[in-house]
Amino acid sequence: MSLTSEPDAGAPGVRSLRVPARVDDALRALLVLAAAPPETPVKLTEVCEAEGLSPRFLSTLLVALRDHGLVHSYRGASGGYWLARPASEISVADVYDAVDARRPLPVPGSEVTGDLWQQLETELRAKLASVTVADLATRS
Q1: Average of pLDDT values for 51-74?
Q2: Per-domain residue ranges of the chain
Q3: Phi and psi for 93 in degrees, rounded to 5?
Q4: For residue 8, what pLDDT band results from cuts at 50, 70 and 90?
Q5: CA-to-CA distance for 94 and 125, rounded, in angstroms?
């Protein structure tokens, strides 16, 4: 089983992956920061306007990203947020870990289905770790 091929979303029985909004919103915010010159603070309001996000919601995400060492911040009139390291060194898995506190729970059931879910979790983690903010920036 591989997660590299794109399924036909219109095919019967095919469902899309449910990604927490927090993860997607945090990635979009990081893309705004990645587009700025290195170590140049970007105001919260600028990120919110660029991505249509609530300042209150985004500020909680940015605090989580800061606490995980993905962004730096500076208060004041000339303050804002900027990437703590190059976009090429921030993986989607890093972002997921920073903003989504949920952890995989063991799925009760037979060994057969439990093994399947564990294999999928392992493959998904590997894929998320292999894609960086820089990779996403080149796609936009």
Answers
A1: 96
A2: 21-139
A3: -60, -40
A4: low
A5: 10
CA-based diameter of the chain, in Å?
58
Cα atoms in the 13 Å half-sphere on the side-chain side of 26: 27
| 83, two tokens | 């990437």
Lowest mean pLDDT among 32-36, 49-53, 97-101, 115-119: 115-119
- pTM to 2 decimals? 0.81
pLDDT, residue 12, reads 64
pLDDT of residue 18: 80
Q: Are 120 and 42 in contact (CB under 8 A)?
A: no
Name which of 53, 27, 38 is nearest 140 in CA terms: 27
**What kind of fold does domain 21-139 have according to CATH?**
Arc Repressor Mutant, subunit A (1.10.10)
Nearest Cα to 34, choosing from 69, 85, 73?
Answer: 85
Which is nearest to 51 in space by CA: 65, 32, 66?
32
In contact, 25 and 57? CB cutoff 8 Å: yes
Stretch (H or E) spanning 66:
helix 55-67
